[in-house]
Automatic annotation (TrEMBL):
It comes from Salipiger mucosus DSM 16094. GO terms for molecular function: catalytic activity. It comes from the Bacteria. This is Phenazine biosynthesis protein PhzF like protein.
Amino acid sequence: MWQTAPDLIDIRFHSTRGEMDMCGHVTIAAVAALRDTGRVSVGTYRQRGLAGTIGVTLAADGLISMTQPVPDTETCAISIDEVATLIGLSQCRILELNVARASLRHLFVEAESVAALGAIKRDDKALFAFCAAHRIDTLGLWAFMGSGTGSANLQLRDLCHGVGDPEEAASGTTNAALAGLLHKSGRIDPDGNGRVVVTAEQGVEMGRPSRVTTELVCRGGAISELRVGGQVRKLLTGTYFLSGI
């Protein structure tokens, strides 16, 4: 990444399989790194990458959030039977499949319960092949934990074989796309001000628990603003030395 202007961050994202248009949790971590080295402070910045330019806000309480595009939904031609085999669950424990695309293309798999998420057994080799064949970037496996007017809670597992990583402990783009999908399908209810906050627990099964918050603002029944973010905890610091450049 490069801070090309005081309010502009240019960034490129790479995985083990190639370059990605967008990566939400890396966006949040990048702003935290710039904050920790004194190059940004509380305020709003622009981040420019292959998926376009988004707004990233650093709040006084340390929360870092970013704007995301409203996802488009697609007809899902994938069968529950095929997905059940890939993740080691019986078909009866999968409630629904949906495909949504924003910065990345996601297959969302609604499980009957949080317990079902814990019972998943990934077939990584088959999942890599499946994602390549169906052009799926991530499989978002999720279950409701509760919802009410203006809020919803869920648990998520994000299998990212399509971008080269079997599972992520926190996923901004996936959480934003799921929240947008839930609103479009009438599964979450905004409050009187048109606002709804979706809180997702993720990474629990990996032993790396994360909490990701997505906020939607709705006007006239449609999403007018979609933001996702969270707090950052530093796990590693160091220096790269590049030779021959």
